[in-house]
Amino acid sequence: MDRVVLCIAAGLLSLWGAGRARATLPDHVEPWCRRVYEHHCVPAAATGVPPSSAAFHVDPILLEEDRLRLQVEVAIGADAQGLLRAAACASVPSLVWEGSVDHIAQVSVDIEELPRLAVLAGIERIRRPPVGLPLVTSQGVAEVGADRFHDMGYTGEGVVVGVLDVGFAGARNLVGIELPADTRMRSFTEYGLDGQPSSVHGTACAEIVHDIAPGAQLLLANARTLTEMNAAIRWLRDEGAMIISHSVGWFEGPGDGTGTISSLVGQAIDSDVLWVNAVGNEATAYYGGWFSDEDGDGRHEFDASGDATLTETGVRANTSFSFILVWDRWPESPDLTFELEVYINDVFRGSSELCCPETYPIREIVVTTSQNQSTVDLVIRRTQGTEDVRLRLFRLDGDLAEHATPSGSVLLPADSPRVLSVGAYRRRGGEASLEDFSSRGPTLAGLAKPELCALDNVDTQSYAEGFVGTSAACPLAAGAVALLYEAIPPAGFFDFRWEREELWDLLAWAAEPDRFDDPDATVWGLLHLPVEEEASRSKSARIRVLSPSRLPVRAEIEPAARGPFSLRVLDPQGRLLAMRTYGPGAHGRFTWDGRGPSGHPVPSGIYLLSVRSRTGSASRSFFLVR
User: Fold this and answer.
1) Counting beta carbons within 10 angstroms of the beta carbon of residue 340, is it exposed (0 to 12), middle (13 to 18) or buried (19 or more)?
2) Residue 135 lies in a domain
3) Are residues 255 and 384 in the same domain?
4) At what angle do helices 201-212 and 470-487 cross, to 10 degrees?
5) What is the predicted pLDDT for the residue at 19?
């Protein structure tokens, strides 16, 4: 964006004519300003204008008018207004006094009158006004089309977004800088807002929401246990959260959209909260499959060859292996149990039998190697029961060296059919590339997940070297939803408010098709706000419309029939707003000014373009943003 501004400025400067009288400017005028003045008064070939960095204000609109905005400074300790304003306004006819603070004044002036200003008594310096820089802006802003929503005035104002995470270390120091000034925070852990261990994870997520929806109010709450989660969700709901962004995954549940955490999330959803959740980073660290024991030794066989061990070789000393096993007999499994066993260099090093209550369908084991070049083997052993059962195994501190099965690696509560789940991709050479770790469906209930993938590896103040993972993608989607919420007013020509299904339909329609090799990677595609996108990406579509669009709405109709046809605009209730009739063989180009039959403007929302002829009809929905 800054390069565009600089190019515009340089282009405008190159259009200034030559031959104007030129005065010599004193040294207390900044060299950049002197170059602009010279460029204005002599042929363009005689001098050039250096670019301006984003740390200084240069207004291209003023430049087009042959004017500059300047910071004028008098001696430190002096009063710029009292010392300078009257004399400047009297001596420089084009000067507009824009304000002052202490010894600094801000003015705008015709470039050719800069010498008049420069010779006034008391001035110590004339320069471009320095500006505060956003310390970090998420790359996802342009990626999802949020910048165009910002240009149209939509920033999420009036929308309350809750960020529910494990820790918000450093968040208080970013309020008013990387986070909104009205951010509210509350901890539901005994360790305070930083969490234990101290974590900036939630802080980074909140930064991304604010980047995408800078006008939205943020509520930050951290919690670890289910009890803390319950209290945090209630607080967020009571404080008016309309969206909750949760970049946290849970393992304790069957993986079919049910379980305690899914029930807690459901309570928030029942209260009209839209829940957005990271799908998980487990695709390369997950194994899923039906228990198999063809040789009858009680050990699970990971593949058709009968391999009963999950093996990693050449492991360095002090490498940790942490595994969780879940099977689909939730919440209790008294007659069917499994244990995890770990062997290092063929020596038994531990079992999961003492880690969890025996009847719980979940097991955990953690071991650490003590020497270099170790071979680590994991075994899943059935200790009770004979039923068929599906196993879900996760490694928490690294990838699986073999037998990884990305399909089905979705974490809770992203597996819920009522939760908007988000995977992650990054840009490599301009192409969207799925992150290999991004979890994917289907769930154990057969539900395709995640609905969307969004950009990760974005910069934040909290993660200066890039925030990687579905944790970064999730708040980007939550911020995008906040923009959509603001873009749809709750009242107007008709009462319109997004229902969850309607919002999901819109996001699905606007998503950019992915080119991932894995069909389970995402259901809808890449997250993209519906701005200036064709309503149909099919080349055979009979109606083409830029949607949503600033008015007027423009459409092209290519009818298959030769006879006369009509085009109508309908609101969601099917009421006719506008109509135009075309003669036989016409190539219809239609423009609508956004007004109904009464002449009053209609509000933002979904509308329908419908073509009718004697031989058939076609329709295309579109989303109008004012």
Assistant:
1) buried
2) no
3) no
4) 30
5) 38
